[in-house]
Predict the 3D structure of the following.
Amino acid sequence: MSAINTLRADLQLIADWVAPSSRVLDLGCGDGALLSWLNRHKAVRGYGVDFDVNNVVRCVEAGVNAIQGNLETGLAEFEDQRFDHVVLSQTIQAMHNTEQILVEMLRVGREAIVTFPNFGYWENRWQILQGHMPVSETIPYEWYNTPNIHWCMLGDFEALCAKNGIRVLERVVMNEEKRIHFLPNLRGSLAFYRVARQPG
Amino acid sequence: MSDLTRSVGIVEAQIAEFDTPLHLASGAVLPAYQLCFETYGTLNAACSNAILICHALSGHHHVAGRYAADDKAAGWWDNMVGPGKPIDTNRFFVVGLNNLGGCHGSTGPSSINPATGQPWGSTFPVVTVPDWVRSQARLADRLGIERWAAVIGGSLGGMQALQWSIDYPDRVAHALVIASAPKLSAQNIAFNDVARQAILTDPDFHGGDFYAHNAIPRRGLRLARMLGHITYLSDDGMGEKFGRMLKSGDYQFGFEVEFEIESYLRYQGDKFSDYFDANTYLLMTKALDYFDPAKDLNDDIVAALRKATARFMVASFTSDWRFSPERSREIVKALVAADKEVVYGEIESVHGHDAFLMLDGPYVNLMRAYLNRVAEEVTA
């Protein structure tokens, strides 16, 4: 069994947002690193969801309960408001049904944590000015093989939230593991949002 | 994976006699009965490493190994159960049994009813999945097993694993429910009834008392099995294996065997009718039809599963249309709603319902990973 004691920096930031003993649903959970860490350090309960059976196997090896499923078809396996936190880490930009998953996350959970590579990051803009689609640490694909089909910048995501009656509780923008406060949409490569339904 | 070739070796079936009456769901009472079973591996001192394997419609207690070195075939799940295999007999004490009503050594319609000195035949009571589970619990008592490390089954076997977790929550640590369903659909029941009709209308059936007539309803059994086999395979798998291949190269313009698929189904049907009891077939299909753990709870499967304390692994196969992935997802959804721990794998396979007996890579990996988890708990 793989015991993951240090988390990748972006996952650690998510983990810091998760309340102890809460119920967590991790969408696109991969090898289960986040939930495995949360299980051991914050005694959370919950499930990972992943499309790839090999990731389900990795989760089981890490002691994580994973459910194989396709996020594009929604979260029909989960009843309303079953979870305290629903996590979607660096996956929303690769989804077809972007708006639907955001709405679904807040149907099954009280709070959603969404992270994505910020397309507005200056290095991306610079590569576009040079006449090419951006390729970087957070976007490690060429235009012809990228799974990422729905790029957005900070303002775009916030507008989608507003359109769906979702309010931003907290936003962190990072670049190479450092928090960016000044000109985040230009200087930040990775965006982290904690969102919830508007009250009432 | 070379370790998949290792075997538990030569095994022997055992008989456990029970003389405490068993009250069945139907209201009938079985005054005494015997269960035929096999075990592999060693029960540890804490009696905590036992795994129960529940069989499907035509299965039995001979799960792994061979009775003699020159046996042509090994037990029905020999590819999954053995030293170093996913259900690892170096770590687990594995129990397989023939269910009540069976025809492989446990008391069933072809057994002699001590009250009459004749085979039970048509008088053998209908048994249900909860009845089986209760009889299996008595076998567990007999073997000194207070709590199973895991109860595992595919298809009808998966239903038993699910029922175990509901009826004996304290006695099951893990339930592995593979290629199963929370209850049968109308289509499932329809297929079962066609199979039953084939048997019931065979003139050699004699109302179930064919033993006295020295007859065997072979035609009915054969048809039932042929129909069953169609539902166990996927359209793609069947196409891949048989396609439109002809035995003799060209059309014969008659009704003898021409296509390879006909030959395959007839062979399977013939083989089956040589050894399987027609009454047992009827009983097994009825147990399937009646299975519905939510029936007495306003059809609320979540309420039924809330009692369970086991952790679950549910698996399905993409090309299985007898118990499709949707049916397994119903179980998963209910388990999540009941706040249970569950792992779910939906395995890409062309093998249809039969896939639970095959060795598709991700399936073996999932079983191995999950049972490693179980084994680590047992030895912890």
Observations:
- Residues 361-379 of chain B form the longest helix (19 residues).
- The first strand of chain B starts at residue 14 and ends at 18.
- The mean pLDDT of chain B is 96.
